[in-house]
Amino acid sequence: MTTPPRRPAFPSGTILGYPRIGPNRELKKAVEAFWGGRSSVEELEQVARGLRRQTRERLVGLGLGRTDSSIPESFSYYDHVLDAAVAFGAVPARFAGLVNAQGRVDLGGYFTIARGEGDSLPLEMTKWFDSNYHYLVPEIGPETVFSLASDALVQQFSEGLQQGFLTRPVIVGPVTFLALSKPSDEAPEGFVPLSRLDDLLPVYAELLRRLAEAGAEWVQLDEPALVSESLDVSSADTSAAAARAYEYLGAPDARPAIFVAAPYNSLDDALTVLAATPIEAIGLDLVRGTVPAAGAAGLDPLASKTLVGGVIDGHNVWRGDLAEAWQKLEALRALSPSVSVSTSTSLLHLPHTVEPEQLLGDQLKSWLAFADQKVEQVATLAEGLEKGVAGIRSVLEASTAALAARLAAPGVSDGAVRAREAALTAADFAREDYAVRAKAQEQALNLPFLPTTTIGSFPQTGDIRRARAQLVAGVLSDDEYQAVMRAEITRVVELQEEIGLDVIVHGEPERNDMVQYFAENLDGFAVTQNGWVQSYGTRCTRPSLLWGDVSRPKPITVDWSVFTQTLTEKPVKGMLTGPVTILAWSFVRDDQPLGETARQVALALRDEITDLQSAGITVVQVDEPALRELLPLKKADQAAYLDWSVGSFRLATSGVEASTQIHTHLCYSEFGVVIDAIDQLDADVTSIEAARSRMEVVTDIKSSGFARGIGPGVYDIHSPRVPSVGEVTELIETALASIPDRQVWVNPDCGLKTRGYDETVASLTNMLEATRAVRAKVLTH
Predict the structure, then answer these.
(1) Integer Cα distance of 81 and 63 in angstroms
(2) Which residues of 46-71 are buried (b: 16+ CB within 10 A; e: fewer)?
(3) CB 62, CB 375: distance < 8 Å
(4) What tens digit of pLDDT does each residue of 543-575 get?
(5) What is the pLDDT of residues 676-705, one digit of tens each?
(6) Which of 134, 663, 665, 718 is labelled catalytic?
(7) Residue among 523, 518, 583 nearest 556 (CA)
(8) Among 211, 565, 619, 671, which residue has the least CB neighbours within 10 Å?
(9) Is 663 a residue of the active site?
């Protein structure tokens, strides 16, 4: 019998990943300069190398080890799933021209796959599990030829080694990579990408071999698919795939030790599957999941593995309870004598550091832990594992005291808010029947067949951003700033009139962000100065901090909408962000159920919608793009979530008359997964992302019998491409083939904030030309 090779010990403390955009969004700026032709690929790579070195040095300074593999090598120029697709040769046929003679794609080609070019549509984009991060969806078919087409991860590891850092390379695991993929255009009906696992595994094994040759002692394979029950493949299928994958990858001697991380929830039955394979370490999310019961069937093999307890919340910014985290680590020792501490997820979801934040008071800052502070917490608990809890007792006690002080602070509980919530009745959550509303709205609005609109925002120009910054700096007075915004709104309305849109928006120039704008105007929130988090590619957001009970001290959007209505005789659409999305895109207090917080936000929005109606605004859109995003990964938890999330939307929107048309918007929401919940929102019109997925959603819409207005997007705003009239025409006709024509609206996939005016005008012009052509065709038959 062959004795397995001795593997290095896993570090006592680590993180699963770290923010990659840079403390001041250096990577975003460098990538966009490259896209704009203002810098070379060499200059972009130089910035990236500098950021990677800065990250390694920073993590050592925060307490991780320089030479014990505790620093994850988790950099990406755009998206870690796209990195895996390019690394393994999974390039769609339409991008075959980007692949050179060696089977590789250069950096420019990599970005083209992400963003599209000409008639070549980019990879579809959707949400990463229950986070606000978007990943690019690989396209896999029987024709996909897997090969190790990129050595970027090996090069980055070697770069760190040359700088004196023994890091731990990180890549998406094979089961998750295939489970998140979609069938290619060439794949036959019924094809499942996970069926290609046996063809992919040798390529993963080759990557592990090369990393071992380069000197890597540990490698991290991320397998969040193993905790999810919300994928197109079943948990049984992913578990069976994991058994095959890690038996295969664990078999060779010439490989690094394997650490399988499973963030975002509990592994459940998949834990026994991984326990039986020859991998050396397993990461458990003990924030969303729980410590497995000692003595449970199938867990005996865990005694020979390192259990990495994800007890520091990588999904939220609160300081947390370190004493409770320590107790979870202690409980893990009943399963294995080898226990380490980590974050529950990658710190990709958090801002870099709370230290420079000047907009936050000292009290609030004492409650917070951004990425760097989370690393320090990991280092503290790792010290306890190494030297005993006595050495960190004072830190644990300070954490407990800070938590108690936070719960007792003024504003955390507001008696008036809680009394109003307690007085709610069923009538507060319901409107008249849709048939009554539809008739009243038809008379009030008099819209044409295939009504057109946009989702709300128009491009935020440099002039708009400068005016906002000048207001904050005191360079512009409030009256001067208002004048600039009104001039922009006037321009946007005139543009929409010229193009021919039917329902007008004001373009939202005054809004820095669709959530932060409301957070700045609601009690119970705080905002950061530099708390940037990557949403996708170079798109970054600053999530607000929801720390206390929520209320609306005064109207927020009414004056802007009323001014806009004076500029046009067409209906103006009031624009609000929904309660679920405000929660999903903020860092939300963790001391009470989310449903309770959602109802507080909904009541504040209800007041705003009522005021808009009173001011003469007859169309109001309440965006809920994050409805699918917060859906729990475990089926047992989904019904309760959908109950409170749907309820909060209905609470916000049920205080208006039948003639007021309520819209909602959802993007990257996998419509079919939550079709019943979307129907129960009872919005009069629902717009949804559909262009990038090439109108896939219409099948779900048709089969569901959805009976109200629906606007499947016909213009993908996440790409700089201008869709042709023919392309938009085809998408509209595809929608009409599955949906009763009087229900269909025409609109882009999402808001236009991130786009430039030239492409926006060209795209909307094509959208209207296509709409007119289809109107004429349908109405003459």
Answers:
(1) 29
(2) ebbeebbeebbebbbebbbbbebbbb
(3) yes
(4) 999 999 999 999 999 999 999 999 999 999 999
(5) 888 999 999 999 988 877 888 888 888 888
(6) 718
(7) 518
(8) 565
(9) no
